Amino acid sequence: MVLLRFAGKGFANGLIFLFTPIQLCDSIAAMDISVRPSAGSMALISAVLAVTLLGLTVPVLGVIPPAPEVSDTPDDWGDALTLTWVPPGPGDLTMGYEIWRLEVEEGGEITPPAFADTVPASEVLTAAGWDMAGDADLGDTVWVDSDLEKGQEYTYILVALTDGAPMPSAPTSPEAPRRQILRNQRINILVAVALFMLTVVVLVERARRGAKLFIRRIAGLEAVEEAVGRSTEMGRPILYVPGLDPMDEVGTVAAINILGQVAKKAGEYDTKLICPNRDPIVMAVAQQVVRESYSAVGKPHLYRDEDVYYVTFSQFGFAAAVAGLMLRERPATNFFIGRFYAESLVLAETGNATGAIQIAGTDSDAQLPFFISACDYTLMGEELYAGSVYLSREPLLLGALKSQDYAKALIIIAIFVGIMLSIVSPDIAEQFKALFN
Amino acid sequence: MNVASDPGVWVAGIFTIAIFSFLYKDNPFYKFAEHLLVGVSAGYYLVQYFFSAAYKKFYVPVFINKDYILIVGGILGIMMFARLFRRSEWVSRYPVAFYVAAWAGYVIPSYIHVRILQQAESTMFNPVGMPLKDLLSACVLFVGVAATLIYFYFSAEHKGGLRVVSKIGITFLMIGFGATFGYNVMGRISLLIGRFQFIFTDWLGLVR
């Protein structure tokens, strides 16, 4: 059954017709048709009746949309609700939607706003305390309202926009966003992390039990001993710059690990190590690491706070200070290990001009070319991460490095399998690819 | 010639020349500019951090918005100051450990998702029915990814077939670095041009 309500002026105002069966719209059970002009209402109604009784589609100005379904957005942090609604039927001239939202007080009732033909729906809703949450295009049937308060109940009204008066739906039943602890869409990441961690644990245990885990020669790291020795022979200090990023960057963590090994060698040879820092927390960690390294080789007296110091957070202020330091202190060996930005060439070129042996290492791919062109040895990306393992051979780090290697092999195999599956069975290949997304 | 009358432009111009003088050799003008830059920036960031972190992210949420859970972060921050005293220095290790571990736990899943899984998925392709140009591009991409990963494989000596593949990998890397180098140098040249424009146009007024 379809309900038609002509909401125009004059003759058609409030006139209601009932039709059974009718094919105005397959999916909409109740419709409200608004006819604004009163002139020619009779002719229009006659035409509508004639056409609909013949089972044809009737072009209408707009249809009151059914109240959308509101549900909690799955796999989120509890700050979103999802609205879904049925699309407009054939002949419906709806142009788009406005979505209005109202916070519902606990235990409070939702009173539908009293819409009037003469007052725009937006004014009625605003006066009733509703907020416009957003808008949707004609083809949309799903809309996500985000940045909501967890646990707070909300109700919505979908307003269909037409050439004439907007058509508001009935308010939805109240719904509150809820938090999900586990994001089901990210189970693949959980499995990947778990597999990786399991491999790390197994390999670390193997390394601890004395199994020989082979690591190939890395030229840049082989040169560390030679570089420290050169500083010792020349009686000049070693400069170590642990990048510009804070302690949460992987590159900085790798730089600090390598700093520990370099400081041990510097301590063994009684060579001064200078370490200027851009980040105060990195400085604190670097001080600790250098002190422990000196102590580990029985030279705690070599450590001085003044050698591992803070410069400034300003990128080029830091670069200017380190460049000046290289010219005044004339270190025989420069280490630029960590994450660098545009200052990389300033540092590497200045060091090159002083004649120092330079070892750089970074995972910043945009800066690697500058280090490669201006330094004697460069650790690229993964080599930087492998650096501390290579120098220390600690079982814990060795196990992690081995796991990374296995992960790389697994990635190559997975890509190859994905390509082969695409040839053999595209459907299975799509499912396989979905595991990675 | 229309020399700038704004003292700010003069200060900027003189300091630009002072920094450029480093190209000749270290000198008192460069030293002065360097120390001023370091000192001013250190002071600037101290004040900025005080307001953006200590005031906006701690004082306002805790004491005005009554969001008391943030006191935990404040305590961890205060623990960092234990470094100032030799006997209590060990206390500062805890906030650093918390900071590094919490951040690592937070970013590892997204790194694995974006940098590993999605990259691997994007490299898979269906050669059936693919136009020749796209097929060639996809094959080059696959070979580049596989060979580069093998170059960074540390568990085996690069000998025999592995050596050949890793050579291909390093070739791909160097081609990439070459392109990056050229791109970045062009960017730096444009910065240099900007500085010269400032000197000759805004400051000295030699060029209009």
Give the proportion of residues in helices of chain B.
Answer: over 70%
Ends distance of chain B: 9 Å
Strand order of the largest sheet of chain A: 12-11-10-13-14-15
CA-based shape of chain B? extended
CATH class of the largest domain in chain A: Alpha Beta
Describe the protein:
The complex is a heterodimer of chains A (437) and B (208). Helix content of chain A is 41%, strand content 17%. With 437 residues, chain A is of the alpha/beta class. Chain A has four domains: 2-53, no CATH class; 69-168, Immunoglobulins (Immunoglobulin-like, Sandwich); 182-212 and 394-437, no CATH class; 238-387, Rossmann fold. A six-stranded parallel β-sheet of chain A has the order 12-11-10-13-14-15, sandwiched between helices. In chain A, strands 6-5-8-9 form a four-stranded antiparallel β-sheet, covered by helices on one side. In chain A, strand 11 (273-277), helix 6 (280-296) and strand 12 (308-310) form a beta-alpha-beta unit. Chain A is elongated. The two termini of chain A are 46 Å apart. Residues 1-40 of chain A have low confidence and may be disordered. Chain B has a domain at 127-208. With 208 residues, chain B is mainly alpha-helical. Chain B has helices at residues 7-20, 28-64, 71-80, 93-123, 132-151, 160-203. The longest helix of chain B has 44 residues, at 160-203. The mean pLDDT of chain B is 93. Helices cover 75% and strands 0% of the residues of chain B. The interface between A and B is large, with 69 and 61 residues.
Summarize the structure.
The complex is a heterodimer of chains A (437) and B (208). Chain A is built from twelve helices and 15 strands.
List keywords for this structure.
heterodimer; A: about 425 residues; alpha/beta; Immunoglobulin-like; six-stranded parallel β-sheet; about 15% strand; disordered N terminus; B: about 210 residues; mainly alpha; 6 helices
Any chance you could write out the topology, listing elements then pairs?
The complex is a heterodimer of chains A (437) and B (208).
Chain A: E1 2-6, E2 15-19, H1 41-53, E3 69-72, E4 81-84, E5 96-104, H2 121-127, E6 131-137, E7 142-145, E8 153-161, E9 167-168, H3 187-208, H4 219-234, E10 238-241, H5 250-268, E11 273-277, H6 280-296, E12 308-310, H7 315-329, E13 333-337, H8 344-354, E14 357-362, H9 368-374, E15 377-380, H10 382-392, H11 395-424, H12 426-434
Parallel strand pairs in A: 10-11, 10-13, 11-12, 13-14, 14-15
Antiparallel strand pairs in A: 1-2, 3-4, 4-7, 5-6, 5-8, 8-9
Helix pairs in contact in A: 3-11, 5-6, 5-10, 7-8, 10-11, 11-12
Chain B: H1 7-20, H2 28-64, H3 71-80, H4 93-123, H5 132-151, H6 160-203
Helix pairs in contact in B: 1-2, 1-6, 3-4, 5-6
